[in-house]
Design a protein that fits this description.
The complex is a heterodimer of chains A (about 650) and B (about 750). With about 650 residues, chain A is an alpha+beta fold. Helix content of chain A is about 20%, strand content about 35%. With about 750 residues, chain B is an alpha+beta fold. Classes of the chains: A alpha+beta (about 650), B alpha+beta (about 750). Chains A and B meet through strand 3, strand 6, helix 3, strand 7 and strand 8 of A and strand 7, strand 8, helix 6, helix 10 and strand 26 of B. Strand 6 (about 120) of chain A pairs antiparallel with strand 7 (about 200-210) of chain B.
């Protein structure tokens, strides 16, 4: 390890010289990285990050300069994507220079510079209406298998918080990663490691330290894996200025909470207009619960989601007055206005800063401003009011109702699955703390179908289906229906659903329930006819009792061993009940067996019965734990296979013998 | 169609055709620009359990103002006369102040009906509708030493919560070529109160490359609620001295109650303008007419919202628009004369490129033997030219890379033969030259690919003939070849060049041709499987999948620049997707990827878990194993557009299943053969030798199915899906079958 470090240090000055003296050639640090012996990688490895170097220099005025260097060896055609170098440009961080090179297997090196870059606003893909963040891209020539590509970007920035984030592990193997920190005299740092044991820092100069990590495996993408940032090796460094004159990086969650609170300071003050609106909203409401519901309803229905984020505006909310006047805002704006309105009715509320990917922030994750991407609210409830499900019992603040005012379709008292059991920063009057959000009971979310159907002797199945969607299933379905732009297309969602299970069908009548009433479960009621649903088997008829609804999954049908846990969206409980009146002159000859599968993370139960001339199929599926560890993944695979088998199982009818 | 005189012109063309290079970076969520209020989701658990829309934090997409497209800003010509610059500017400025067409900063009156409206009967369920749209373009500004101007006016009624996203307005423009000015906007509430927009208009970089900067003026209207009317207007000012391409986009994402358009064309000599409406006009709309004031005008009412559907014809064939084309010489409006002139010009170019007889004869000697039959000679030539490195099918190379690799442009077929590399276009002409050198009667042809639009010679636009092929008279028959289209088998054309019109080039003014439409037998999928059913109900065994004709061609093109690992995954995924149950698939033999002629044949080991289902003492086996691809075809009863199939195909499955010794067949489904001529399905299940033999065939010779026939088509595919669910009944050996 020591020898490698020495070698790396030795060739940095040489690199600068070579870069200046022979501009078309790739710098020496790239050539050195390109000549490193590599282990044998498996056939799926598309590229290797041969060398990653980040040099961060903190200036005494709190500005930073950073150099980012990357060298990739492309091993397979899929690795061509590494022939594009990206830099981010914004109001408070700009790119000083950007250069990239290719060392082809044969012939001279290529070089591309700033002027050849393409720049594009992030709002085009990121979703904000207005943002000052832009991405600059350089296409590196000859990014072909066998060739080595690399780039160097110099950033200059004035960070809002004095800290840095070193991303070490990637979706491809990393041969060597290096991070160098240069602090002004008298400054100190605090480093925290995530998903990796702490590497020793070596002093490489006056108030300069370096960290080197070698040979990290790739984090391969798998379906329904935890968020990448919850798995990858990272180091978070806080820069600590001497004395208290300078702001410093966060040492505790409390520090971060205070920073968040400071950003919102004075922005939750109500204006007369806001107060007037609150009075209007609660005019007929008597209980705190009704008042919260009225204000939440206003936030969901009348305040549009529009994100205008410039500079610190990515973190700092607009004032409640502005949000109210414009009737639009992003998540933190909506949380701010709602908090101000609640205050008007004597209810305190607190920001909850969260990442919408559960697992991105672990219980041990150190504080850092870039960890989160969303803001919701914790509403302090009077002691006697515990009717909601999304409740958090806080030791000091008492019972807190967690609510997302940005989510226009999830009612008060519930919480989307991705936010449940998720670690978030609760910004309290004293500062802040990392808190786990509540996990709702499984029956808060799910789909329940019941159908009364009739089968005729020709095999046609017809009847009425009632489908009730709760929790996330209601939320997402409401959003989906919202996007439908023609009443003729309202039925398409049902058609799509049925076509997973039935080949030939016609919907004869359909209606939606509670599309715009979030407090009530969303539902469909429809009638359909499915000719040839039952298949003739000579004189027999084969009928699949599980008429519709697919709960099985081919997620784990692969010979590749699973690398990561399987993550469920949230707790869930589904149930189906189908009653099929049999055709006259037929009786049941064979029934599929009942299924009972119970695991710690999920369970599935189904049975098919005959009651007189009616075939009745019932089943339930419940997700109990939100993550299945790798050690239990084989059990989950078995469970999915059991469900798939049950979904295909068939009852056989025969002509009745009288 | 107006002409008058101006002085000599200089021309300047700008190519904006480069594809967007932007894509989201791999690690955006992890770098230092994440903020709160966003929802970057690079590492999100996969979407399988997220089939529904993610709740807000992601704002709405697709602002309707995007119908103003960058293409509208394509420069046609640049006028610059420095001597006249100052006086022209002065005169232009004076006229600018008085011009009527862009001075529309007054709001149009709003009716009580518009205020009260809660739905639009002509667009039931619409989230929002355009009550009014207006586009007035004045290209005559150029004549006054200024640029062209365009005035845009929109009035939108918000009918649902989703419709409120119309309040987010994005007006893209091309910096240095255009600017946007005079933005005025307001919100009108259902009670008639008006809130004028006094917020900030932001200018965002959409994309910036060397010398080209696309920007967008962005703003959002406050306090927009269901029932509100959103109204805004603005001017686009085009760069001085430039004449830009112009067209009216009539179809929009929202239903339009009324739209009016006008263009005051630049009509100074030698410039003339023509206009056309390639996809027709909305029902009841009078075509554009030029008035005595030389302004071309059109009004249209009740324009349906443009709907996107699976298997729809090219969008260009369906989207209503009016295209204006400027000409710097009097355009030839006589269709016959136009194409004769076109033929003469293009034929000359081809002849100049291919007329290297001696070099071609020398090349030919290394390809064919004198004793070969004409067909064999042609086949050998075809095979040989396809071995030339086809630059059109390699990853895109920059000019620097081409220079680095010493790749030069081929001036003629002799150079191409010498270099042994070339574009697909040039390789096809090399085939022509060699065929002629072999003594064959061969003609160059230009055809119009049908992937983007359908060709109409009456439009007299030679640019629409965008693909080249060769016609060879062989044994008295016209045969068409395009060896420059990589991996295309001898005797076939890529699908987009089939069934299309084209022009056979010759000295005599050319002849119109139509390329053949291959039948399903020419593009086949054959899956042959030998499988065993285990006691656990799993299917295990070997599968050989073979793809011929256009079925093999698209796969080869798709994977042409990939390696064996990616190709293995591609083929395994294809098999998995065709099986309607969880399966493990492993490729055991790679196909011949680089050939054009041999079928693309791959071998696999497959395991389908739990394929047999339980039914008490019986076990049931679905008859169709490779049926998942049809599962979601035409699942919706409602259809707006005709159904468009790219090419005919035939999929045949031949599956043998060996049963466990303890089981026997109780019954098999009855044979099915449903033949609608254009499409056919058959299923046959036989028992014997301790197992079952299943033959399934699905054939489609369909090309375009009119909307009125959609129910028949849907019923057919529903029948296919239903029949695929037929079951073979198994029972333990020795049990008595129920009759």
């Amino acid at each position: 390890m020591r020898m490698i470090r020495a070698a790396v240090l030795a060739w940095i000055p040489g690199a600068l010289f070579v870069a200046l003296s022979a501009r078309a050639d790739a710098p020496a640090w790239m050539h050195t990285a390109a000549s490193m012996p590599l282990p044998t990688y498996d056939e799926k490895t598309k590229a290797v990050l041969l060398y990653s170097e980040d040099i961060t220099t903190v200036l005494s005025d709190g500005k930073t300069k950073a150099i980012e260097r990357r060298v990739y060896k492309i091993l397979r055609p899929e690795g061509r994507e590494y022939g594009e170098a990206y830099a981010y440009v914004g109001q408070d961080f700009r790119v000083g220079s950007m250069r990239a090179w290719c060392i082809p297997k044969q012939g001279k090196d290529y070089e591309v510079k700033d002027k050849e870059a393409i720049e594009r606003s992030l709002s085009v893909s990121g979703g904000e209406l207005v943002t000052d963040v832009r991405v600059r891209m350089l296409r590196i020539p000859a990014a072909e298998p066998g060739n080595v590509v690399g780039y160097e970007i110099e950033y200059q920035s004035r960070p809002y918080v004095l800290e840095d984030w070193w991303w070490i592990q990637r979706e491809i193997p990393v041969k060597q990663a290096r991070y160098t920190l240069q602090l002004p005299a008298g400054w100190e740092y605090k480093a925290a490691w995530i998903n990796h044991s702490a590497a020793d820092a070596s002093a490489t100069g006056s108030n300069q330290w370096s960290w080197v990590v070698n040979d990290l495996p790739a984090i391969r993408e798998e379906r329904r894996m935890p968020p990448f940032r919850g798995l990858a090796a990272q180091m978070i460094v806080s820069f600590l200025a001497p004395g208290s004159a300078q702001r410093s990086g966060f040492l505790t969650w409390n520090d971060m909470g205070k920073w968040q609170a400071g950003l919102a300071s004075g922005r939750r003050e109500p204006t007369p207009q806001v107060s007037q609106k609150v009075a209007e909203l609660i005019k007929d409401q008597t209980t705190p619960q009704q008042k919260i519901a009225a204000i939440a309803n206003f936030m969901q229905k009348d305040i549009r989601y529009v994100a205008i984020e410039l500079g610190i505006g990515g973190w700092q909310p607009h004032s409640a007055a502005d949000v109210f006047a414009h009737r639009y805002g992003d998540c933190k704006d909506k949380a701010t206005l709602m908090s101000a309105m609640l205050k008007q009715v004597g209810i305190d509320s607190y920001y909850v800063v969260i990442n919408t990917h559960r697992g991105a922030v672990g219980a041990e994750t150190p504080p850092m401003m870039f960890l989160f991407n969303h803001v919701i609210l914790a509403i302090r409830l009077p002691e006697q009011m515990h009717d909601y499900q999304a409740l958090l019992n806080h030791p000091k603040l008492g019972m807190l109702l967690i609510f997302d005012p940005t989510d226009e379709k999830t009612p008060v008292g519930q919480l989307r699955g991705e936010l449940q059991a998720n670690n978030a920063l609760l910004v309290t009057p004293d500062g802040g703390e990392l808190t786990q959000m509540p996990q709702l009971p499984a029956n808060s979310t799910g789909v329940s179908r019941s159908a009364k159907l009739t089968l005729d002797a020709q095999g046609t199945l017809r009847g009425e289906v009632n489908e009730i969607r709760r929790g996330d299933f209601a939320t997402y379905e409401r959003y989906a229906q919202l996007e439908v732009n023609s009443s003729k297309d309202l039925v398409k969602r049902i058609e799509q659903e049925i076509s997973h299970s039935i080949g030939m069908f016609q919907i004869t009548e359909a209606k939606m329930l509670n599309l715009n009433i979030n407090d009530l479960p969303f539902g469909y009621t429809y009638t359909f006819a499915a000719p040839a649903y039952a298949k003739p088997l000579g004189s027999l008829l084969a009928v699949r009792p599980r008429v519709m609804g697919v709960l099985s999954s081919d997620l784990l049908e692969s010979k590749e061993p699973r690398q990561h846990p399987v993550v469920f969206r949230g707790p869930e409980k589904d149930s189906d009940s189908f009653e099929i009146a049999l055709p006259a002159g037929y009786e049941v000859d064979d029934l599929p067996p009942p299924v009972n599968a119970d695991y710690s993370f999920a369970s599935y139960h189904s049975k098919t019965e005959v009651n007189g001339s009616t075939l009745k199929y019932t089943r339930t599926f419940e997700v109990k734990e939100l993550s299945v560890p790798v050690s239990k993944v084989e059990d989950l695979k078995k469970l999915y296979r059991v469900i798939a088998g049950d979904e295909r199982n068939t009852a056989v009818l025969k002509p009745a013998v009288h | 169609m107006l002409t008058s005189r101006t002085g000599p012109l200089t021309r300047k063309a700008i190519d904006y055709s480069g594809e967007s290079l932007y894509r989201a970076t791999r690690y955006f969520t992890q770098v230092s620009c994440q903020t709160m209020g966003r929802d970057p989701s690079n590492s999100q658990p996969d979407a399988e359990h997220f089939p529904r829309r993610h709740p807000r934090c992601s704002p709405p997409k697709g602002f309707y103002a995007r119908f103003l497209r960058f293409c509208n800003m394509e420069v046609i010509v640049y006028f610059r006369r420095p001597v006249l610059l100052v006086p022209m500017l002065l005169i232009g400025a004076l006229l600018w102040l008085t011009q009527p067409i862009a001075a529309g900063d007054e709001w149009k009156p709003i009716t009580p009906e518009e205020l009260k409206m809660t739905s639009m009967p002509e667009a039931p369920g619409a989230a929002a509708v355009f009550l009014y749209r207006e586009v007035n373009r004045n290209d005559m500004g150029i004549q006054r030493g200024r640029g062209a101007t365009e005035y845009n006016y929109f009035r939108i009624k918000v009918l649902t919560e989703e419709g409120r996203k119309s309040a987010n307005v994005e007006i893209p423009f091309l910096k240095m070529r255009t600017s946007v000015s005079g933005i005025r906007a307001r919100t009108i509430h259902p009670d008639g109160t008006i809130a004028n927009f006094d917020g900030k208009v932001y200018e965002q970089t959409v994309e910036k490359t060397q010398g080209v900067k696309y920007l967008a003026k962005t703003f959002t209207l406050p306090d927009v609620q269901v029932g509100s009317i959103i109204e805004y207007h603005y001017n686009i000012d085009f760069e001085d001295y430039y004449l830009f391409r112009s067209y009216w986009v009539v179809s929009a994402e929202l239903f339009t109650k009324r739209a009016v358009f006008s263009l005051k064309p630049y009509d100074r000599y030698p410039w003339t303008v023509q206009w056309s409406w390639p996809a027709g006009l909305p029902k009841g709309t009078e075509p554009p007419k030029e008035g005595p004031d030389r302004i071309v005008r059109m009004a249209s009412e009740n324009i349906p919202a443009f709907v996107v559907e699976d298997h729809m014809p090219p969008r260009n064939e369906l989207e209503f628009r009016v295209v204006f084309t400027y000409h710097d010489e009097v355009p030839e409006m006589n269709v016959e004369k136009y194409w004769k002139q076109f033929d003469k010009k293009k034929n000359g170019q081809v002849e100049a490129f291919t007329d290297k007889r001696r070099a071609m004869e020398e090349a030919l000697a290394s390809i064919v033997s004198p004793s070969d039959s004409p067909e064999l000679k042609l086949q050998k030539i075809y095979t040989r030219v396809q071995q030339i490195q086809n630059l059109s099918y390699l990853p895109r190379k920059s000019a620097e890379e081409r220079k680095h690799e010493d790749i030069k442009e081929n001036k003629d077929v002799e150079e191409l033969w010498k270099h042994q590399y070339g574009t697909g276009w040039d390789i096809t002409w090399l085939f022509l030259a060699l065929a002629r050198a072999a003594g064959m009667e061969a003609y160059p042809c230009l055809v119009s690919g049908r992937s983007e639009y359908f060709f109409h010679k009456e439009r007299v636009d030679g640019r629409e003939l965008d693909a080249n092929i060769v016609l060879v008279k062989l044994n008295g028959k016209d045969r068409y070849f395009d060896p420059g289209a990589a991996f295309t088998p001898f005797g076939l054309l890529p699908w987009m060049e089939t069934g299309v019109d084209g022009l056979r080039l010759d000295k005599d003014g050319g002849t119109w041709i139509q390329t053949p439409l291959p039948v399903s037998d020419e593009s086949k999928i054959l899956r042959k499987a030998d499988l065993k059913l285990t006691d656990e109900g799993d299917l295990e065994g070997k599968l050989t999948a073979s793809f011929t004709g256009l079925e093999g061609l698209w796969r080869r093109i798709d994977e042409r620049n990939q390696d064996d690992t990616e190709r293995k995954k591609f083929l395994e995924d294809q098999v998995k997707e065709s099986i309607p149950a969880g399966s493990e698939v492993e490729l055991t033999k790679q196909p011949e990827w680089n050939s054009s002629e041999s079928p693309l044949t791959a071998e696999f080991n497959i395991k389908v878990t739990g394929w047999a289902s339980a039914a008490g003492r019986r076990s049931l086996l679905p008859a169709a194993l490779f049926s998942a691809n049809e599962k979601h075809l035409f699942e919706h009863a409602n259809r707006v557009w005709p159904v468009y199939f790219r090419f005919a195909y035939k999929a045949t499955d031949d599956v043998n299943i060996q049963l466990p010794p303890a089981w026997q067949v109780e019954s098999v489904p009855k044979d099915e053969d449903k033949d609608l001529k254009g499409t056919e399905y058959s299923l046959k299940v036989e028992r014997g030798n301790g197992g079952i033999h299943i033959q399934r065939m699905l054939r489609s010779d369909l090309f375009m199915v009119p909307k009125d026939n959609y129910p028949v088509l849907r019923a057919f595919f529903q029948f296919v899906k239903s029949e695929d669910g037929q079951q073979v009944v198994l029972q333990p050996a020795g049990a008595t079958a129920n009759k």
